[in-house]
Design a protein that fits this description.
Number of strands: 22
Radius of gyration: 32 Å
Oligomer: single chain
Strand order of the largest sheet: 10-5-2-11-1-12
Structural class: alpha+beta
Distance between the termini: 27 Å
Strand content: 15-25%
Helix content: 40-55%
Length: 743
């Protein structure tokens, strides 16, 4: 251990960094999964939820629930949707808030709203419990005032909503007393949450089909427990995926570096190993001398890694603890993290043991006679520097590419949203078609509007392999504001339909095949013309062509309408948006006006914040590892070349000349590594991210790359770090004297 302290410290650092990242990944995932499961268990989250705006027939629902053997429990919850312009919280207006905010009372049977202390709160008259996600966003404290029109409510506390905690959920519920709900019922539009708990073993998708076939209220989106958990997991899960990716890359780097360090050490120690064999020391004892050292380093690295992972996890998990609380068993998370750390350290020790066994096969004479070509060994070190440069740059670039992609306006095309700047939603009203017609009239007469399309969503029965399934279909012109299509194109003729990738996979169809839709009690064959990415509505949607004439012909209720709009270039979009909001208020039209870039920023603010944190961790880890590796290997190269450097000084070389040789020799390998790292980060990183995002409904993912950063700033930072490490490493050349050439 004392023979070369620097090498031991570097080995310990590699083992510690890998332990930190693997421990952190498992700890964060266990905390996130455990917290979400704990919250959903306390809240008794429904297995199936149908949102509905409009009149509701209680008798039909009661009959369906009582006759269906799969129903364990059911209830109907009221949700009073309030216009955001009427809401202010702690003195801050909600006019720019993109969520559907509303009031509710505490549920009677399940789907409870949970206070931050983990209890089910009973709110006092004149008070309100606020969604916990707004606490930090608006800086709200208990005792602050929530204003709804001319009615004031005092903030009594904060609630965690197992359904709507994530900003990816488009609605937020404020908890009030039944008395206050009744008083405020006139200032909002009421909708209903028809909720079911399903018996274990029952298929939720089959239950959803039964519900749809029964003709029950369905004027709104359908949500399942699996979708709720997906939305809760997705924002923080992306950060954990980034850290896992960094951990895997660093494990590979650690294996390469520790392997090379061990081989170099064994090469230097061959005379001693040969002598030990010659005097009769057993192969096992010789291996144990070296192996025990790495066991000690691995134990020290594991302990340090687990402690550091626990410390670092606190700020990184602050948001998930705020949204979901803490899980029931923290000890199990720490234990899982420790097992993961032991596993990766075990991988490194197995590698070390395998290398040591190779030495056992050689006799004492072979060991003493065998010599390695010095130039060949030095070239291997330079190549390894190039490989590590590429790997560290790769793990820095991928998170930044993910961040720039999610932050981009173009990312909406992966969300099932058209490539537009402005979107109008017509929902939460009984006469959606009539309200849509009013908006269409005003857009036709607006000289600022360049073009617009109206898309209307209906639930249609589809016949697949003889069974009937519900299909959420959006009808209209899908070419004007196109999506990202994985395969094929948007529907542009009657009887053409495009399916989301998850829907196509579940239904077992591809482009060119057909599906049967039941329209006006008739079976109509629709050809699948395209498959697109979508993460809205659980990723299970469809889009069909309609030139406007079919709207009147289809005898099915419209669930909601979406209008995409583009304005002329010289129009101030912010002023136009304000004008449209004022028009909606004046004419009392139930539309939601959205600036799509703002909507994306608000929806993914949690995810963007977390990935930004993970990007910083990845960038810092990459630069630190590159600095350590170059410092180590260049010192080893300089030390191996010590006699050659002394000879050069003896024949008249200056110290600066020798340093320049090292800078030039190592610099070309660093630059080649930088180029390879950028290429890998763009292409291989895209493939890896595509595999992960495909599970959420995003297929054939294409990164939106910020090239000034990826090709310019980030590689420059790594080059500077490498040059700094090389400069420090070759300082020892000054201490080499010409006399050493004679020794």
């Amino acid at each position: 251990m004392k023979k070369d302290r620097f090498i031991q410290v570097v080995t310990y650092l590699f083992m510690t960094i890998e332990a930190v990242l693997m421990g952190l990944t498992i700890l964060l995932f266990a905390n996130l999964s455990g917290s979400i499961d704990s919250l959903m268990e306390k809240a008794k989250t429904p297995d199936f939820l149908q949102m509905h705006a409009g009149e509701i027939g209680m008798e039909e629902i009661i009959q369906f629930a009582e006759s269906n053997t799969g129903v364990e429990n059911w209830q109907i919850c009221e949700f009073l949707n309030i216009d955001n312009a009427m809401i202010s919280l702690g003195g801050t207006s909600f006019s720019e808030n993109n969520q559907d905010n509303g009031l509710c009372v505490q549920s009677a049977k399940f789907d409870y709203l949970i206070a931050t202390d983990g209890e089910i709160p009973n709110v006092s008259i004149g008070h309100v419990y606020v969604p916990v996600c707004y606490r930090s966003e608006y800086g709200i404290n208990t005792g602050d005032i929530m204003q709804i029109g001319d009615k004031s409510l005092v903030v009594e506390g904060f609630i965690r909503d197992s359904q709507m905690n994530s900003m990816m959920a488009s609605s937020k519920r404020f908890l009030v007393s039944a008395e206050d709900y009744d008083k405020l019922s006139e200032v909002g539009s009421e909708e209903y949450l028809i909720e079911f708990l399903i018996e274990d073993g029952c298929d939720v998708n089959a239950f959803a089909t039964e519900y749809g076939n029964a003709g029950l209220p369905a004027n709104g989106p359908t949500i399942t427990r699996a979708l709720i958990k997906l939305m809760n997991t997705l924002s923080d899960g992306m950060m954990i995926f980034v850290i896992l990716l960094v951990s895997v890359v660093i494990l590979i780097i650690s294996i390469l570096c520790i392997r090379f360090i061990l081989l170099t050490t064994l090469e230097k120690d061959k005379p001693e190993i040969g002598m030990m064999k010659a005097i009769g020391i057993s192969r096992f004892d010789i291996r144990r001398i070296y192996f025990n050292k790495y066991v000690v380093l691995a134990i020290a690295g594991s302990i340090s890694g687990i402690i550091l992972a626990a410390i670092i996890s606190n700020p990184l998990s602050a948001q998930m603890k705020e949204l979901y609380g803490t899980e029931n068993s923290i000890i199990s998370s720490i234990l899982a993290s420790a097992i993961g750390v032991v596993l990766v350290e075990g991988i490194l020790l197995l590698l070390i043991n395998r290398i040591l066994r190779k030495i056992e096969r050689l006799s004492a004479v072979q060991i003493l006679q065998k010599r390695t070509d010095k130039d060949k060994g030095k070239k291997k070190q330079y190549v390894l520097i190039s490989v590590i440069t590429a790997a560290t740059l790769f793990l820095a670039i991928v998170p930044i590419n993910i961040l720039s992609t999610i932050s981009s306006d173009k990312f909406v095309t992966y969300m099932g949203i058209g490539d537009a700047k402005i979107r109008l939603d017509v929902r939460q009203t009984e006469d959606i078609a009539g309200e849509t017609g009013k908006v269409e009239e005003i857009l036709d007469s607006d000289s600022d509007v360049e073009k617009y399309v109206i898309l209307q969503t209906r639930t249609v029965n589809a016949v697949i392999d003889g069974s009937v399934q519900n299909l959420l279909v959006e009808w209209g012109n899908h070419e004007e504001f196109s999506l990202t299509f994985v395969d094929g194109d948007a529907p542009n003729e009657e009887c053409e339909i495009a399916l989301s990738s998850l829907n196509a996979k579940e239904l077992g169809v591809t482009t060119g095949q057909s599906v049967q839709l039941i329209i006006n009690d008739e079976f109509v064959d629709y050809t699948v013309c395209g498959i697109y990415s979508d993460i809205t509505n659980g990723g299970k949607t469809a889009k069909a062509y309609d030139n406007g004439e079919m709207f009147a012909q289809i005898d099915m209720p419209v669930m909601w309408s979406v209008i995409y709009i583009s304005l002329f270039e010289d129009v101030d979009s912010n002023r136009w948006l304000e004008r449209m909001k004022e028009y909606a208020e004046t004419e009392d039209i139930a539309i939601k006006v959205t600036d799509i870039p703002t909507y994306v920023e608000a929806t993914y603010s949690q995810t963007i914040s977390q990935i930004k944190n993970a990007s910083i961790v990845a960038l810092a880890a990459g630069m630190l590892i590159l600095w350590i590796v170059i410092l180590l290997f260049m010192r080893m190269i300089v030390e191996a070349d010590r006699r050659d450097s002394a000879f050069k000084k003896a024949i008249g070389y200056k110290t600066s000349d020798i340093k320049m040789e090292y800078l030039a020799g190592s610099g070309k390998y660093v630059l080649s590594g930088v180029i390879a790292g950028v290429i890998l980060g763009i292409f291989l990183g895209q493939s890896i991210c595509g595999i992960v995002l495909g599970t959420f409904g995003i297929s054939k993912f294409r990164m939106i790359i910020n090239y000034p950063y990826i090709v310019g700033l980030i590689p420059l930072l790594f080059v500077l770090v490498a040059l700094f490490a090389i400069t420090i490493s070759i300082k020892d050349i000054c201490r080499i004297s010409a006399r050493e050439a004679l020794s």
